[in-house]
Amino acid sequence: MVYFFSDVHLGLGSRESDRIREQLLLRFLNAIAPDCERLIIVGDLFDYWFEYSSVTPKYFFRILAALDDLHKKGIKIDYLIGNHDFGHQDFFEKELGIPVLHNDISLTLDGKKFYIAHGDGKAYNDTGYLILRAILRNKLSIKLFQWLHPDFGIWLASGSSHASRTYTDEKDYSERDGLQDFAEKKINEGYDYVIMGHRHHATVVHFERGTYINLGHWLALPATFARFDGVKLELMTTADLGLS
Ligand SMILES: [Mn+2]
User: Fold this and answer.
1) Per-residue confidence at 59, pLDDT binned at 50, 70, 90?
2) Fold of the domain spanning 2-241
3) CB 119 within 8 A of CB 235
4) Which of 10, 15, 178, 193 has the fewest Cβ atoms surrounding its Cβ within 10 A?
5) 32-60: average pLDDT
6) Cα of 85 to ligand 1 centre, how many Å?
7) What is the greatest pairwise CA distance in the chain?
8) pLDDT at residue 191 is higher than 80
9) 44 C-alpha to center of ligand 1: Å?
10) What's the order of all strands across the beta sheet hosting 76-80?
11) Around 164, how many Cα atoms within 13 Å sit in the side-chain half-sphere?
12) Rounded CA Rg of the chain
């Protein structure tokens, strides 16, 4: 089985409300471990992530330990970053052995072609956001950030995460959904499945030649995720696994 999830946004809101998401994700990782061969995280696992040469955000250690356990059990994990959790250096790669991917993924699983993207920058009129993203992810901005005290730096990072949310949330998706149109384009190029997150709206759209799934989010329960069993891709909820 290959599992996909996105938009858990760990670190969002009060510590108490965040613990609910954290516990659910821990139970989810535990529940899928027996049959999971590969886990693909499709962005915004964290509401903010910013690391220094010797410091990482402290509230995420249980999740990091759980991912480390899965990886040690031989489960391949791919972590595609989103518009919130982009401040990575080498911690995931070096300490956990989990690659952090900065670009969309194209891969073939059991003969099916998958196109996987977080989804930011895919809506219409997203040029302003793409510029903001280029600045935030710029190597020099990240270097300058390194000189700030971590408490201040992470406070700023969670602030820019808020700005990113406000920016992308205020997008008018009502007339046409740029993500869905993007998915349709990819399917017409020959992909069987397109998987994205970011919109916080779980969706399954069947086109003539393929299917688009938006993974939804973990900010309300039950949380949503997708599973590919080698034949079909399904959108599921944590309630389907007996978790709520
Ligand atoms: Mn996002």
Assistant:
1) very high
2) Purple Acid Phosphatase; chain A, domain 2 (3.60.21)
3) no
4) 15
5) 95
6) 9
7) 53
8) yes
9) 5
10) 100-101, 76-80, 38-42, 2-5, 224-228, 233-237
11) 27
12) 17
